[in-house]
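Lab manual, section 2.4: Encoding a predicted structure.

Procedure: take the sequence of the chain (319 residues), apply the prediction step described in section 2.3, and record the output as structure tokens. A sample record is shown.
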Amino acid sequence: MPYWTRKATGALATLWLASVAVFLLLRLAPGDPVSAALGAEADQEQHDRLARGLGVDRPLPVQYLGWLRGLLTGDPGLSFHYREPVTRLIGQSLGSTVQLALAAAVLMLLLGLLLGAALATERRPRLARVLDPVSTALLALPVYVTAVLFVFVFAVVLRVLPAGGEKDLFAAPDLAVQYLALPAVALALPGSVVLARLLATELRRTRQEEFVLTAVAKGASPRRILLRHVLPNSLAPFCVEFGLHLGELLGGAVVAEQLFARHGLGQLLLDAINQRDYPVAQTLIMLAVAVAVLVQLGSELLVGRLDPRIARAGTGEAR
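Recorded output:
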């Protein structure tokens, strides 16, 4: 079976298993949407009437198949709480989260590459010795700690950036970037440090490979050796790790949006879980899973492209 077919089949199986797990786990949690909507004062008749109206009195397999059919056709139903289409609610919050996730992804990629190259440098050992403990400290700090530190330093002490909120990127791009800066950096830092340390390790290992030593012996310039031989052969693990962290950005966005008062998908998901709004919550979680799986699939296909030996593994062609 071709490499991409095996990976695509695995991705589809993961998505299906995730849909079952998400559907069941939300219903196993304490509370239900009817009690959340009516409160403790409602009688049994009101409870049964609303349960029929929301469709939560039907058997679980029927509810699951109905939701899955709607998900595949692009119509996951109405929100239990807002009584509006789930797609409309997601569309209203999508822009804020996409801006935050894209900004954090770009920062994570750039910081990971630059910091990784600096940590592995042999020409400036003092720089590597300074950056090593700094990267270790940043690696140990979770998003909510770095976010609070950034707010204290840049919004409270220096007063150069706003502590929270958001602006329309198209109506006021300069203000939008200011509001986006702190949450994007806080969200990107942990992943960028992991990427940097992984890249530094791969760069040091690749420098000891025979083909690199041969290039050095032939008098190739350090720049040519890095860009032509060392970096391309060190990027495969970096790409896979970057894909994994891209999938985690939506989860991190929930924390960042809470701390920086942004109204994105993370805030919508948190509200949906608190209100037991199953259609919104399970659709948003599946959206996050789908993004993570697709990014991971893309990174694995890229790795197969960068190193054909990986793509041939398990097919019998490697021999």
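Check your result against the sample. The chain has 14 helices and no strands.
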